[in-house]
Amino acid sequence: MWRRGLRAVVGLVSVTLFAGAGAPATGQSLGRPWDLQPVQDNAGRFAISVPLTWRVNYPPKNPALSVKSPEPPGTSPDTVEVFVRDMMFALSPEGCAQQVAFVMRITIRQWTTLSEGPDSIGGLAAYSRAYTWHLTTGEGRRSIQTCVTLGRRVFVIIGTTMNTPDRVAQNLPEITRIIGTFRPGPTPPEPAPETQGPSAEH
Prior knowledge:
Elements: H1 2-10, E1 28-29, E2 32-33, E3 36-40, E4 46-51, E5 55-57, E6 65-68, E7 79-86, H2 93-106, E8 112-121, E9 124-134, E10 140-150, E11 153-162, H3 165-180, E12 183-184
């Protein structure tokens, strides 16, 4: 059940502010601004700051939020996506990452892990994985994937750029900075206890 639940979280691993999220920062990469603005998902479950020039989408299902850099036609954009799922039980960030890896075997199938281990975002425990992989077209991609859990709620944030020396050197630090602005909303309520039907005894 947990595998089906987490598969719903990630869907296709493409490769994804409340008070205290921090002020927008400014940078410059590849000639385009990296001024950040805070955005929330439609349900108020989290907030994250993204570049002003990036296109923000709110898909009806997961990912809950998807943003893409403005690139010329024929050029793959940088992306940041946030997936959210309320599980039936609490899961650690590392446990989340392990289950996401199971989903990756079904979706992108092959990847090369560059690094992984415990992390933190805004003082919250997290678990991050950096890896390279390929689109079906053969184009190389490089991603950072971070799991954050809040009680039963699981967040998976994935940032991706082209796996070329220039894009990795200039854009990956900015994508990492974007992921670092992630802040979850309130802790989801615990599920109501199951009620038993009337006893057969009289």
